[in-house]
Design a protein that fits this description.
The protein is elongated. The two termini are about 20 Å apart. It has one domain. The chain is built from three helices and no strands.
């Protein structure tokens, strides 16, 4: 699980860097800069069905229990 998380984090960081580089290059060519609020706007969260929400809670509880088992008492 730790290896999968590390791989996911590396891939996530690469996607963020690619996003940043692309936007830096695109903004450098822009005639007019967009408003900062437009660039910083966060997409809304996807609404989960009750079944999906319950599944996510179970996954979270499993991860929490595994993490707590690794912590010294």
């Amino acid at each position: 699980m730790a290896i999968e998380e590390s791989v996911w984090m590396l891939e996530h960081e690469q996607r963020l860097m690619a996003w940043a580089v692309w936007h830096i290059a695109a903004l450098g060519r822009a005639r007019k800069m967009p408003a900062l609020q437009a660039l910083m706007k966060q997409p809304g969260a996807k609404a989960l069905s009750p079944e999906e929400a319950e599944e996510r809670r179970k996954e979270f509880d499993q991860m929490r229990h595994k993490w707590q088992a690794t912590q010294p008492h």
